[in-house]
Structure formats: structure tokens, C-alpha cells
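[Solved] Which block belongs to which protein?

Original post:
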Amino acid sequence: MSVRHALLALLAEGPKYGLRLRQEFQAQTGEVWPLNVGQVYTTLHRLEKEGNVESDEVDGTQKRFRITAEGSRELQRWLHTPPDTDAPPRDELVIKVQVALRMPGVDVMELLQVHRRHMVEAMQRYTHLKAETPPGEVGLGLVIDAQLFRLEGIVRWLDAAEARLRHLPDQSWAASDVDLAPDTGSLRQRANALGGNR
């Protein structure tokens, strides 16, 4: 998630202090994505250097920030730019499973179960939070829905990984039996062939 663009969006509503921006950011996300004050001010100073925000001293101690015309244009560009889907992200769980496949003595199926249980427990927590969220808290509701769909996708990937491994001959997952390297071309080239870069 782009903290800089979230701050620009909050400043599009009107001038604000850094602490106020942090409070509003966390209120909109239901504090699911914590943001420390240092990160807020570091980002604001970078935005100011780039000409996306301006500041003035109020009461001699705190700066109040406001979005500039360039900042408004940058926010609109970001809002209308689709996220990058060309290259698969470096997913920690995928890497863990790939590493486990190469390690002697690691029960990969048990590893998949451990992660599946963790994801299902997280889904239960978010489902409980969703049930307790008032209908008017749209921002938090959107964050919870996104998390639930993301976690569901991870569980589905774990199911698919287990099914793929079960189809290997002799259900042997030793490094010598598992080919982790593609035969030809990179994943990026394959993704592009599917229409990622046209």
C-alpha cells in the first residue's frame, strides 16, 4: 500500500497536521495497517521536496500540510494506474515451501498444514471482526473484505500446492526428485505470453 498516496488523499480533503493525518489514516484502515508518526513526517517531507505538498508553521511548533496542484495530479495519476501484475511478487510463503522442498528431513505436507491452520485462524478472526463492524465504517469493512479474500486465496494456493505435490511419483519430495527450475524462459516471460505485457 502506498502511504504517500494515502496521505495525499487525506490532504485533498483540506490542510492537516501530521498527527491528524496519522489518526485519520488509522481510523480509515481500522488500525489494521499501523503507521508510526516518524513514517508520516518522513513521507510528508519527501512529498514536500517533490512539490506535492506545502507546509506552514502554525502556533510556532507544528506544521500544517496542504496538497499542491502537482500533488493533486499525482494522486489522480496513482488512482487511475492499475497495480503492477507483470511480475509475480516475492511471496514469503511460496519461498518457504520451495526451500522446504530442497531440505532433507522437512515434511512439506506438515509445513503446508501448519500454514493452512494459521491462515484459517486469521480468517476466523477477521470474520469475527467483520461481524462486529458497524455498517457505517466503510473503510474498515473494505480492509476486512480485502484481507479475507487475500487469506482465502492463500488457503486455495496451499490446497493447490498440496495437490501438485501429491501427484509427484512415489510422493517423494526430496530435492533430487523435484524440479523447481523452469525448462525454458523465465516466469516473467511466461506471464507476458499470457497477456501481461501487451
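(Second protein starts here: sequence line, then its C-alpha cells.)
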Amino acid sequence: EAKLAEAQSKADEYLDQWRRTAAEFANYRKRVEKEQAEYTKYANANLILKLLPLLDDFERAFQTLPDGLSKLTWVEGIFLIHRKFQYVLEQEGLKPIETEGQFFDPMVHEAITYEETDHYEDGQIIAEVQKGYKLHDRVLRPALVRVARKKEKREEGKEEKQAEGQPAAEEASNEKEP
């Protein structure tokens, strides 16, 4: 009876080890499938990144196109090629990053200048210099933007001194000297 109990114990132990190994293998298979799907999803990223300057060139060309040329058949043909090119990239998961009316987000925007203004809120995007794009949910190229900063209110005393020809910073340093 002791041998039977020992054999049953070993059988239970082996069965438990087998179940754990089977579960580990199933988890491994799921992880590999997920990694392969992720790899496939972003496999075209380098190619699409190389095609973005072409898309930029199309858009710049259409923005500077004189009105008289836009109705020509060959120009309309190029416009159709541009739209088809955009459609193919969209089908691959490419989406432009929104900037109009948005606030600066360092995760998707790259600020090339900050401009003091009263016409926009602090941190609001003034203009887009270059379009940014996401491939599915990843930033492929950040949008290059100009960002607003609120004008700083200066102390009246400093402004008066500057108007007299002596910068306020120089006066402050002169006051510290005995």
C-alpha cells in the first residue's frame, strides 16, 4: 500500500509538471503569435517613413499651384495619383497627427519655435510647419509646429528705465554696487 501511495504521489507530481509545461507552452505560443502580429503590423514602417517626403512634396506642389493650372487634365491626373497614394498609405495604417486648434503635446509634436502672442492660449499650436504621422498607434514622424507663449507682463519701472536708454538689468547691477 505504501508503494501504491508513493506511485500515486509521483504520478500526480508528473501530471502537475506536465500541465505546467503545457500551460507554459501555450503562453509561449500566444506570446510568439502576438510578437509576430506586432512585427507584421509595423513591418512597413521604414518604407512608409521613406515615402513621407514624397507625400510632403505632393502637398507643397498643390499648395503653390497657380489657379489657371489646376483645371488642366494632366494636373488633375497628378492630383488623382496623389489621392491614390494617400489612400494606399491610409490602408497601411498611416494617419496624420492633428495640430489645428490643439495644444502642444511632446509625445506627438516637436516645437520648432515658441512665439509670444496674445491671440492664442499658452501652449496652443499656432501653425504646422511639417505634418506629422502615426502608423497605427505609434508616432512615425512628429508634427513640427510653432507654439504660442503668453506675452510676459513686465514691471512698469523696468520698462520706464529701458525707455530712458538704460536697460533694467544694468540698473539692477548698478544698484548692487556700493
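Accepted answer:
You had them paired correctly. Confirming on the second one: Confidence is low (pLDDT under 50) at residues 165-178.
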